[in-house]
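Priority: medium. Attachment 1 of 2:
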């Protein structure tokens, strides 16, 4: 069994919400870390029916537990009324809850009790390189990092089922959108913008819906943790910069499937796009798991002359992601331009180079070494 980085030690002192897309490994993690904890699985029809009909039953049962006990409720968003009972138990019985689900959107939409700051928020990401012995970059670039997908030789059928059964049908089931056809088309068009600056008008035209609807659809992807936006680094020193965000699906395998990308080979543009997505995905997970207060952004000038894929914090580290096996000075233009405006910034390229080297003041790191240093707090600290 893979050792996950997220350990949830905060539950000793606080209750927690644990959110994350399906199949990131939330339930497996909870059963591994807390094998003795009372576990309420609302995916089980009999448990769902019982507590849906009588939410107070949870309070009656948990009042029998010792103070400081940990209780897990999986898929808590299915019965929002349980959160009133949870709130009472936290305050009056010192019970510590881990409330697990795929998204808080449904709870907010129904005006559910989100415990008034009495529960910390944690997010479960797909696998990251530091959790996988003998990590295979090409396998990750092609199939993504969801455990059920990374750990099999051919994840295509599982990706098809995942997207059809979850990313589309569950969103419809929760009444987030009414028209599955337009939303399905939107997801495919959004994939074309994966890793690119979002152009709402263009996407709306291609989907046959309004720009307002497209913005609502992106909000759904963001709030259900199916995708995330990376803002533009907007501090202007010399050059005017773009301010539109970039969009990424939460896992590169999902983007690959929606784009019908498969069998990606090094040296192709498709591999390069997926490679960049994977590294951004790792940086996002690192910043979250390390509870860093540094924000991720990107830098792009308005005349499209220069771009930097990732900027950490207030221009502390600038990272360019290149799937080249031999980075040269032409790959460094964006970093050099950024350095002119932010002279104290550390410049890094992550690539498929064989060995680390320094090129004109820029650190060139092979991807395996970069990821090792990232998770050892040696890139961002």
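Attachment 2 of 2:
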């Amino acid at each position: 069994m893979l050792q996950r980085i997220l350990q949830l030690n905060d539950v000793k002192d606080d209750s927690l919400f644990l959110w994350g897309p399906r199949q990131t490994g939330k339930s497996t993690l909870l059963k591994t870390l807390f094998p003795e904890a009372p576990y309420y699985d609302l995916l089980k029809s009999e448990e769902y029916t019982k507590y849906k009909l009588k939410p107070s039953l949870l309070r009656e049962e948990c009042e029998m537990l010792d103070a400081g006990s940990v209780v897990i409720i999986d898929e808590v968003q299915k019965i929002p009324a349980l959160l009133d009972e949870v709130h009472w138990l936290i305050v009056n019985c010192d019970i510590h809850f881990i409330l697990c689900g795929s998204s808080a959107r449904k709870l907010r939409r129904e005006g559910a009790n989100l415990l008034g700051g009495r529960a910390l928020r944690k997010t479960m990401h797909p696998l990251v390189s530091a959790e996988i012995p003998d990590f295979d970059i090409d396998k990750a670039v092609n199939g993504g990092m969801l455990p059920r997908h990374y750990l099999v030789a051919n994840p295509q059928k599982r990706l098809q089922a995942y997207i059809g059964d979850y990313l589309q049908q569950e969103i419809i089931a929760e009444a987030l959108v009414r028209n599955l056809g337009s939303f399905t088309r939107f997801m495919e068009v959004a994939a074309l913008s994966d890793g690119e600056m979002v152009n709402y008008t263009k996407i709306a035209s291609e989907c046959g819906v309004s720009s307002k609807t497209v913005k609502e659809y992106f909000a759904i992807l963001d709030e259900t943790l199916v995708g995330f936006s990376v803002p533009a680094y907007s501090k202007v020193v010399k050059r005017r910069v773009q301010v539109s965000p970039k969009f990424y699906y939460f896992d590169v395998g999902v983007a690959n499937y929606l784009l019908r990308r498969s069998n990606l080979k090094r040296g192709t543009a498709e591999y390069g796009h997926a490679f960049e997505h994977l590294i951004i995905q790792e940086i996002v997970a690192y910043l979250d798991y390390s509870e860093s207060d540094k924000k991720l952004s990107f830098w792009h000038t308005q005349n499209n002359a220069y771009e930097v894929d990732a900027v950490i914090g207030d221009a502390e580290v600038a990272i360019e992601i290149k799937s080249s096996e031999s980075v040269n000075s032409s790959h460094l233009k964006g970093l050099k331009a950024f350095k002119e405006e932010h002279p104290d910034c550390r410049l890094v390229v992550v690539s498929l180079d064989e060995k680390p080297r320094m090129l004109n003041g820029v650190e060139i790191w092979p991807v395996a070494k970069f990821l090792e240093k990232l998770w050892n707090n040696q890139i961002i600290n």
